[in-house]
């Protein structure tokens, strides 16, 4: 019985969150756990919260260790997944939490990542509306290779896509400023990510359109509106472990009313389990998504400047990475899409 | 089908955590939600993370609203539960998250709380060892009135009880210094609990043996060792929302070895699902218990001073309040004790 | 000897920061301290860090108590300062930390604040460039009534004004998204500002152009560029006590180069003590301004979208309120502008 | 004119705080800045808050670079200072912020640090009372080699010394549990000190009497009471950058009253500028010491258990390291002891 899943990169933050979610998943059994430099050590040294797996010893990340599972999650440094995936059977469901297969455009890949484009996989953001009226989830049912979105693109795309899908927004002059918790930077030891450096402080990074999530946001919004979109994206680092708050703004097309905006956003997510447009007057807080696979969204029109402001909150490790990965795996495996995924954040 | 549960005090932190756990509990259905001053408002205004209950309107906290359920959780200000409970049928399982029925000694009640003692109920700390070799859970099976322990007593008692149960510790000169997250102070608006006041700061309060959890810790350790125990208890406030770290120290009886200490602690919790003695050399972090019903414990002997130092970490709202409440309810209702309770914290 | 200063609103955050700075000011003596509801209590109850003033008893905030000083700082709720100021001698230097006299436009006042416009005072942002080549400090020398800018306008205006003063930016499609520490919300006890609510969370508020600092930012940028400017401003709340990080973006005029942008920003602040344009590649962190009267600024051009992104970091209570107030007082009193003001933040 | 000071280890946290204080010191000029692995880089890369020194290039830490100054501060890894100091002229004032010369007992050194004892220097805790009625500051006037205390010993010794000096406390069964901000762990990149790991979490470390500050606390309290003292010391890590809160408890000698305790503590620090015993009922918060050279202390008697509980709050980098260093330097150089040292913390 059960589907077996291997997790590569089990000692990192994305790997840990995958395991936390899989431990609560009624249809998936946890198989091999692998790591790079941490191979040979026990999981408890890296993920002391994962009590049921404390004594599991990490194997090295090789295709041999990962083979023989129905499902393989790759939470590896960028650039490492294509080679591993090529060695896995074609009918294994491979879910890549890294960036390698997110971008369709080889040119955008080369501009922002450099090196050769590894090709694109089915994009794991099921709720994303497309201009043709379908959702991205259609591409995920039965897929065998899936690219999990970046955390910023998940937050930003869900926030603004309803407006593009409904044809209400101008495709240029989109501005996204997003704040992320520190876990988005991963578990590597760096001086600038020490607690002493980040607590009590906010700072930007990757300013000026150079952050690699920029073309991914543009790809998603372009898909939603069926036209090219240009985005000014600025990420900032916030003094919290988890959470992304994306403040996204775009110019309204002439004559669009606040009522049309509200209706478009509500209609887009009316039937979604994990993406919620909040009642008017309430704004999302990242804390309400902690540990949950949810995205909380609110939208307002600033009539003085003719702009829509859409704000979304997610947990970067949950809906922004591991939750999106498991949700996509459910679709690929013909399991109920919401199976095993938490809907309620841990607050306060 | 299913057991129906009402929650009184649903707009507070304990009430919110109860609801978060009950939403994930496969054997309990959520019935009436009541509040005091917040009666008449929607739950979403107070608990925006509880998406599935967002539109529930809070009823006033009266026996009428709470009656007709199999299970009633009371998360009320101290002093309010006895009167409500008296109006509920004797076969309703009433779980009081407040202090009213925790202390057996009327004298201790009067000294620390003042006013008349409302009598004691079965004490909801299932794993607590007793000198007779049994556990506290024996008193909870089938109980109809249960007092949930205070959060500090849960952390402190679990940390030191093994040593008293095994007769290894002197009953005087016990010192407990514990740090708590701010949610322990509840949801009332107070200047000294503002984010600006607590972030970046540690401070003590209730110093000098005046904190009301002191006699409760003494009661538990006395029960474990079958002799009176005196505790110097100092609580401190830490800049985090959740979590208690209790550093507990007691003098060793002459001749007790570190090996005996280790064995006593390990034996006490070997078969427990939620209470873990960590492998030697690893110390508990509160973050690893976030949202989980777990207590992580480590113990060391300081031979220079002849003391044992036992440290425990819990989530004050989960194992320290709502988790302990649900675990006790499971026992009272003859459900599996661990049913619906999370074992894995949300980290990092 | 020395100039005597009274502080009205001494028990709040702005009042406390004024006193912290004045205690270190070699040319000003602290006189009367007044409060509203806290009148009659000792300062130590509210500002335990101000050790040298611990035993000072707060007087009620009346013109009588404030009269007889050379300098009066008003850190009062909005709407209270005009009446008090009217009762003080015309040659007393009155520095209002509230909003009442910041806006020149009565229409903007009525739209955003409502009620009658109290008139505008000299605007206390000395470094703000104006289209005529002068700085705002010219208006402050010898002034007797000064309005201290809002904290967001200080951060945002300093960030973008160089581009408007140099004629490089389009006046529409300006977008500002700013994150503030919680002290910006003041010291009133509110549930949504409790530590438990704000720690580990980011959230927006005042979305859609309704925040009262919006017209003030527009006023400043309009003054810098001598043309009306429209701003989309979204404030967010960050889990830290102090600090504002303002991410400000505007469209470049056709043909403007990155070199021209860099030069404009550097030239604007080359001779300023407190406002620093960082070397290329380094981005401001709010922690580096903690307790200091500094603004740290960086700017980049995103050529893909034709926008400039300027980011500034300040301490909302220091440069954003009390530091700006003292700097303005120095100018009004013909003291050296930088006297007594800290240039070095407390980091890490 | 003025005294010239070199700082070795200028890129670390202690070095940065020394420079922050020295920049505000009217009698000391900053000379050479040196570093180990960071030699050759600009200070701004490591200490962006130290604007006036931004462009200073760090020299390698050698005796040659440090020679020729009146005053040399060593903020080096443990074990490095003795060799450097031996190469500096005997009349240079050398202030060691490391541990090498704190302990008088070679045996204690070998037990806790290992290796050869480098000998002890004058101990830089001026306010520490001694059993003979003098203060430690007597040893510092005119000293040429000074060992700055550890941050935990500063907090703990100041908290309990009054009771030992007055003969009120039993010398065994002293228990100290202290919480420290993360800057106490220094600026080295370690996974367990990442912001993601420490935010929202409390954890102990060095449990069981193994922390190297243990013998130093015992030395200080022994000096105060003129008899050996044994201490159980447990340090914990708190989610804040700066601050130590030390909760210190000891058994009272028979018959000692609360009044005698209060009097002893108040008398000890009555004339001290930086060490304050708070009024009854108020407890210290670390935030009130942020950036200041102060120690805030409160004491209570728990009559039920016959113990005194003394709590102190300091800034570990200020009074706990760099502030104590500068205060000691002032004494060594016959400057006013308080010169240039901040008395007011940056709160909130």
UniProtKB/TrEMBL annotation, chains A, B, C, D:
SMART domains: Semialdhyde_dh. It catalyses: N-acetyl-L-glutamate 5-semialdehyde + phosphate + NADP(+) = N-acetyl-L-glutamyl 5-phosphate + NADPH + H(+). Keywords: Amino-acid biosynthesis, Arginine biosynthesis, Cytoplasm, NADP, Oxidoreductase. It is an enzyme of class 1 (oxidoreductase). The active site is at 151. Transmembrane segments: none annotated. GO terms for molecular function: N-acetyl-gamma-glutamyl-phosphate reductase activity. Its EC number is 1.2.1.38. Pfam families: Semialdhyde_dh (PF01118), Semialdhyde_dhC_1 (PF22698). Pathway: Amino-acid biosynthesis; L-arginine biosynthesis; N(2)-acetyl-L-ornithine from L-glutamate: step 3/4. It is found in: Cytoplasm. It comes from the Bacteria. Residues 4-136 form the Semialdehyde dehydrogenase NAD-binding domain. Signal peptide: none annotated. PANTHER family: N-ACETYL-GAMMA-GLUTAMYL-PHOSPHATE REDUCTASE, CHLOROPLASTIC-RELATED (PTHR32338:SF10), N-ACETYL-GAMMA-GLUTAMYL-PHOSPHATE REDUCTASE, CHLOROPLASTIC-RELATED-RELATED (PTHR32338). Belongs to the NAGSA dehydrogenase family. Type 1 subfamily. Catalyzes the NADPH-dependent reduction of N-acetyl-5-glutamyl phosphate to yield N-acetyl-L-glutamate 5-semialdehyde. This is N-acetyl-gamma-glutamyl-phosphate reductase. It comes from Kineosporia corallincola. The gene is argC.
